[in-house]
Amino acid sequence: MSKSETKEITIRQLYTELNKYCSSADYDKVLKAANKIIGLDATEWKAAKCKLVCLIQNGKFEEVLKFIERGTAIPDTTFEKAYSEYRLNRAEDAFRTIQSTVPSGGGGGGGGGAEQWAGLAPNVKELLAQILYRLERFDECFELYRNIIKNTHDDYDDERRTNMSAVAANRCIVGGGADKQQQLAGMNLPEDTYELTYNAACALAGRKEYGEAERKLRTSEKMCRDSLEEDGASEEDIIDEITIIKVQLAYCLQMQGRVKEASALYADALRHKTNDAALTAVVSNNLVVINRDQNVFDSRKKMKVATSEQAEQKLTSRQRKAIAFNNCLLAYFASPAECGLLASRLANAHPDLEFQSLLVRVSQLARDKKYREAVELLEGYAQRLPGDSAAELLQVRFAIVQLQLVAGNRRAAIETLESLGEARYQPGVVSALVTLHLGLDNKQAASELLKGAVDWYKRQKSGATISDGDLSDMWRQAASFHLRGGEPETAAKSLEELLRTHPNDMKLLAQLVIAYAQFDPKRAQQASKRLPALDTLTTVSEIDALEATNWMMIAKAVRRKQNVPGGGRTTGDQSPGAGTPSAEQQAAARKQKRKKRKGKLPKNYIIGVLPDPERWLPRYERTGYRKKRDRRVKEVIKGSQGTTSGQADQFDMSKAYNQTKNSPATPGAGGTTQLEQNAAAAAATRQLPRKSQHKKKKGKH
Questions:
Q1: Which of 213, 345, 456, 566 could staple 204 via S-S, CB 3.0–4.6 A?
Q2: Cβ(73)–Cβ(43) under 8 Å?
């Protein structure tokens, strides 16, 4: 038998083993068998294909790429290479790998629709849709999924519809226009699974319809539990799946201002310790937002989790941007030294957040009272802005004004606001300037400013009109200011302009009459004829109702008013002589007795028994009071144990003193001699130090 025949037999046996191991999904043994076949014959592309599949199943994506780079006999390795790059979070490389297989003119990176990928294999199309989703090219991904669903019918239709609804939800979150939202509504995607219901809720949240999103999320949670329990899933798996829904529900509650409920759901999600790094990062970031400047130590721990490398790989660019900005804000409160560095990194990584990062740095300088440096930073940024960014320039100027006011430099703030060009005539700017001028007691400047604003709006024939709410309020305030400032002619001009757009406003007409009366009585008289007559302003029934109301009078005054005969306005007052009561009526009124309030009786009161006359005295002043004995105070001189009361009297100095005072001492007659008195006195004095020592010792306890 020749070597070639032996080689073929060996390869055939190895393929038999390979098939057996593939049937049992023993990928390690499949890999060994495939390596043996490739070692015998490198042109065996089927064995090489099996090797690639085994490496992918074992998660060895780097080895897949190395094996493909060395060269294989496999006709097409586009799918395996692109999938391995996708799993290694190299979505751009995976997209270029697939794009390289498309003929020139197709797959140019957007705008060509799903037709540009028509020549790809179905499995490569599915992978491309996932790659486009990872690259956040949601419009292209959405069109590709529509094409796949239209041209493919198999057991995975539900999964494709779910993926397409997720893409549609992200289009709304990123900022899809009205046409995209209308397109999504016209698709009529079913909501017969909990995944589809969840994605529909996410789309509603992207449109800021948080109440309706909350309702759908609660429905999705119930559907998820019922579906997984029906499939026999474990409680751990059910909680894993429901946690994602609860986190989204917590976000909707947080955006509705129900922070306590949201915090409880977030804490429950962290307590479960899910393996989804992106979900943990989102929860940690949202809890940092809820904490604000409180509980900073806990917020720093959570932010460390949110900014981990493992989490950033799975987060969208929008999520990464929000977390980076929140990390910068947290450093402002927790670590001022680190704040400037993080703000610079934020501006470099996300150029569209340059102004926000600059505001963080400026706030830090303002907190350190370095107002001049902060203003210089903002002015430098304003000079770099292009000429068409008027709105952003206005924000920068307002930030400078805020810093100048915090520093107490009102004049500089006025100069900054007056340098805004035509923007200084906006109602809010005019109001701020008037307030600042009045704060400097410069009423003349405030008056001139209001005159200039009124004249400017008169000259504007297009754009904003006097009928606009803000402008109307500003003109009213200008007229009132000029009236108070003694400039009725200027006030009259403003009121005349207002009356042209509000001809039925009688309050304006009345103010105009007051203004005319101060410099042109004839015009005031003529304008007053347009005012409604006094009879039309009020009716008799309104006067009666006004007089009947007692909300301006206390209850006692109301009763006094009602008891006085003839007081008040009655229906009989219209007859002659009404309001002058007779003497009989006055006498009857005097006899009216006021009701006396019954006095309160004691709780233990017994009818017929006189109450204790000493009940109002303190207890210690009453006759039957007996002071409780304090066992801690010992009696003075009790004598030794077994001493009789007679012997105790012997040491009572008060008795001994009385006896010697009343009768002279008689030796041998039982009396006490002077020597004994001295001895007793000495004994008494010796007891005093011991008594005081005893008290001192007791005090230590």
A1: 213
A2: yes
Which of 512, 430, 506 lies closest to 471, judged by CA? 430
pLDDT, one tens digit per residue, over 164-182 is 989 988 887 776 555 555 5
* Residue of 239, 240, 165 whose CA lies nearest to 198: 165
Contact 466, 475 (CB under 8 A): yes
AA letter at 20? K
Q: What does the CA dihedral 200, 206, 208, 214 come to, rounded to 10 degrees? A: 40
Question: Using CA atoms, how far apart are residues 148 and 530, in angstroms rounded to an integer?
Answer: 74
- Nearest 10 degrees: Cα torsion 166, 170, 172, 173: 130
CB neighbour list of residue 402: distance below 8 Å, 6 or more residues apart: none
- Count of residues making up the chain: 701
Higher pLDDT, 147 or 497: 147
Cβ neighbors of 138 (< 8 A, separation 6 or more) are 132, 167, 170, 171, 174
DSSP line for 270-292: HHHT-S-HHHHHHHHHHHHHHHT
Q: Is 576 within 8 Å of 568 (Cβ atoms)?
A: no
Q: Is the torsion defined by CA of 105, 110, 114, 119 positive or negative? A: positive
DSSP 102: S
Distance CA 46, CA 73 (A): 9
**Euclidean distance between CA atoms 226 and 161, whole angstroms:** 21
Which candidate, 234, 241, 230, 240, places its Cα nearest to that of 198?
Answer: 241
Residue 83 CB contacts under 8 Å (≥ 6 apart), including other chains: 56, 94, 127
Q: What is the C-alpha separation between 160 and 126, in angstroms, rounded? A: 9
Mean per-residue pLDDT over the chain, rounded: 78
Q: Which two tokens mark 295? A: 């509980």
Flag whether pLDDT at 698 surpasses 50. Answer: no
Cα 209 from chain centroid (whole Å): 17
Query: Cα(515)–Cα(527) distance, rounded to whole angstroms?
Result: 11
**Using CB atoms within 10 A of its CB, is residue 50 exposed (0-12), middle (13-18) or buried (19+)?**
buried
Q: How many CA atoms lie within 13 A of 201 on its CB side?
A: 28
**Rounded to 10 degrees, what is the CA torsion of 365, 369, 373, 379?**
80
CA 325 to chain centre: 16
Return the DSSP state at 16. H
Distance CA 661, CA 408 (A): 90
Kindly report, residue by residue over 326-336, the tens digit of the pLDDT: 999 999 988 88
- Among 517, 505, 501, smallest CA distance to 465 is for 501
Q: Distance (Å, rounded) from C-alpha 372 to C-alpha 354? A: 20
DSSP annotation of 594 reads P
Measure the CA–CA gap between 80 and 53, rounded to whole angstroms.
8
> pLDDT digit string (tens) for 500-556?
777 777 777 787 788 888 887 888 777 777 777 766 666 666 667 766 666 555 555
DSSP, residue by residue, 569-590? --GGGGSTTTT---HHHHHHHH
The rounded Cα 37 to chain-centroid distance in angstroms is: 64
Contact predicate 392/355, CB 8 Å: yes
pLDDT of residue 596: 61
Buried b (16+ CB within 10 A) or exposed e, 601-613: eeeeeeeeeeeee
